[in-house]
Design brief:
24% strand; Glutamine Phosphoribosylpyrophosphate, subunit 1, domain 1; alpha+beta; 275 residues; 8 helices; single chain
Length: 275
């Protein structure tokens, strides 16, 4: 059985935004392929330390049936003969949370819970890593969930992190119809599978993701008057495009274009930078 060693993770939710998510870092290749699981208005699950991948879909199924996080942890671990080697965190649809660390997990290993979050880690330098996950989440209330989760990983690493170093990191955030084109529940799904500084790389990828797929409030869009319309035509012509939509599609910015009366300032800045 392969062990996902030296992993720390945070399951969390923002009930006001209708978002659930998981962030994780591990000295393990592609931690995002195993640890994080989430479904909007259902919950989030992190499975690690000799991870049982079935805890993910099975846990979400139990949450979907209305069980509380603590009851799901009890149900999953009771049915698993290798539970003492497992570590598990769950946040449910109501923000209830639970964490489990088996007695066979490598020290330091443990977890903390609070309203809307479950933090856990194994093979850590000390419990300060998990304390940093929890404390940072509590201290960043009001911010976007994805940003908070990355900040939690960064704080945990600064607090000591895992004993065997870093290799991969992952961020998963779900929201009903919050993903691409409003046709997906996956708001953010970013993975750094093998990197000497995976959390820094995850932060870079998230900035890129926000530039391409983030949402600027419509009230902040720039009105396209005659002067700006002429500038747009001139810049697009230099790039060989007849319309803003054509250029935006090439640059993967089509989600930020909507009509010609106003332009997202992110799109405007990108076009000006390109010319």
């Amino acid at each position: 059985m392969a062990e996902i060693v030296a992993t720390y993770s945070l399951c969390a939710c923002d009930l006001d935004a209708g978002q659930w998510g998981v962030a994780a870092q591990s000295k393990f290749l592609a931690v995002g392929s195993v640890v994080p699981w989430a479904e909007p208005h259902v919950g989030a699950v992190a499975t690690q330390s000799y991870a049982n991948p079935r805890y993910g879909p099975d846990g979400l199924a139990l949450l979907r049936d209305g069980l509380a996080a603590a009851d799901v942890v009890e149900r999953l671990t009771a049915a698993d003969g290798d539970r003492e080697q497992r570590q598990l965190g769950i946040v449910d649809a109501r923000g209830g949370s639970a964490t489990f660390t088996g007695s066979g997990c490598h020290a330091w290993a443990g977890g903390r819970t609070g309203p809307g979050y479950a933090a856990q880690g194994n093979l850590l330098v000390s419990g300060e890593t998990v304390d940093a996950l929890a404390g940072t989440f509590e201290g960043t209330a009001g911010g976007p969930l994805a940003d908070r989760l990355i900040e939690c990983l960064e704080a945990a690493q600064h607090a000591g992190g895992d004993r065997r170093g870093q290799q991969s990191a992952a961020l998963l955030v779900v929201e009903r119809d919050g993903g691409y084109a409003g046709l997906s529940d996956v708001l953010v799904d970013l993975r750094v599978d093998d990197h000497p500084a995976p959390i820094e790389e995850l932060r870079r990828l998230h900035r890129l993701h926000q530039a391409l797929f983030g949402r600027t409030p419509r009230s902040e869009w720039v009105t396209v008057d005659a002067t700006l319309a002429g500038e747009l035509r001139e810049r697009l012509a230099r790039l060989g495009h007849a319309t803003l939509e054509d250029w935006a599609a090439v640059e993967n910015l089509e989600e930020r274009v909507d009509g010609s009366a106003a332009i997202d300032p992110v799109v405007l800045e990108a076009l000006r930078s390109a010319t």
